Amino acid sequence: MTEFPKKLMAKLTERQDNNSLRMLPMSKGLIDFSSNDYLGLARNEAIFIKASKLLQKKGVIANGATGSRLLTGNNGLYRQLEEVLASFFGSESALVFNSGYDANIGFFSAVPQRTDVVFYDELSHASIRDGIGMGLATSYKFKHNQLEVLSRQIDRVRERKIGSDIYVVTESVFSMDGDTPDLKALVELCASKGAYLVVDEAHAVGVFGKRGEGLLNELGLQDMVFARIVTFGKAMGCHGAAILGSDALKSYLVNFARSFIYTTGMPPHSLATILAACEHLSASGREQQELSANITFFKDQLKNYDLEASFIPSNSAVHCCLVEGNEKVKNWSLQLQDRGFDVKPIMSPTVPKGQERLRFCLHSFNTENEIKDVLLILAELFDKR
Questions:
Q1: Number of domains in the chain
Q2: Mean pLDDT over all residues of the chain?
Q3: Percent over 70 (pLDDT), the chain
Q4: DSSP assignment of 259-298, as one string?
Q5: Does 15 map to a domain?
Q6: Would you say residue 6 lies in a domain?
Q7: Residues 187, 245: one domain?
Q8: pLDDT per residue over 179-218, tens digit each?
Q9: Does the residue 9 lie in any domain?
Q10: For residues 24 and 100, what is the distance between their CA atoms, to the nearest angstrom?
Q11: Residue 352 and residue 214 share a domain
Q12: Is 355 strand, coil or helix?
């Protein structure tokens, strides 16, 4: 075997020395406070059976797409799914991508042009940053959820770059903090500045909205943004993503988004599963109600255990407890796991150094006793500091 490059080995060694080397974990059957399966739909038998019956009904016997959607992979399920998604999310059009990562790099590398400017929240997901980095537009980050700062930045750019299109990018629920921006104020700001607003709703779909359509729908703002990115691998328990917007945007992405053009389409079973999950969400709000109740209970227990000050404020399914230092947060995570609770550490460089944290992901299927017990252990860890 060829010798591994020394520069690459040095980077791995540096990660190991910093106690930040990533490794693939195996499931240990612990109580789940770490997965993105917020509604438990990834293990929902009814959705699994419904997807299989849909394929049988349509006479689809295929394990793969056979090619990209622009060649041989655009089977009839795609058209049906994109029509359902557009209706479900209240959008003119929808375009399915293989993953949320693919959707973001496809959009941000293709849509903003060389003379344009992109402003993105400093805590935006890596896929947004990567997509912007692959594109030709000038980009600036703005302080997390600080709209006054963003407004001043836009004004300065407008003075220098007359005629440039400006894009503003945020997330409706931030994956590493669980918090949300003031979306109503942000929509108004972008409208007043003539900027195109793009919102990633990955961690809001299934959690917010009457049927789980996301936070923008819950606030009645879905028609006031240029594009939304929604994903199916979290609360919907499936795989894949979609970009929601106008028919013109869909046509543009089909022609210019390289992560859409140059990849094999999704297998039919994945498409059928998304359809089944949409149908399930439309018909039943039980899991959403259970999740909402658990979020409220979790926040109440933070007060009871005097832990509220250690957590980043959140109304979503993601709640983060700040525990400074990779070694410390990793140790606390292991102690929680030893007691039967799967709570993952989020370490630098995933988050800035000094802002390491334990991330608690809440689910519809968590019990009140599980929530009380895991927070009791956490309170004991704080007492032992």
A1: 2
A2: 96
A3: 100
A4: HHHTSPPPPHHHHHHHHHHHHHHHH--HHHHHHHHHHHHH
A5: no
A6: no
A7: yes
A8: 999 999 999 999 999 999 999 999 999 999 999 999 999 9
A9: no
A10: 20
A11: no
A12: coil
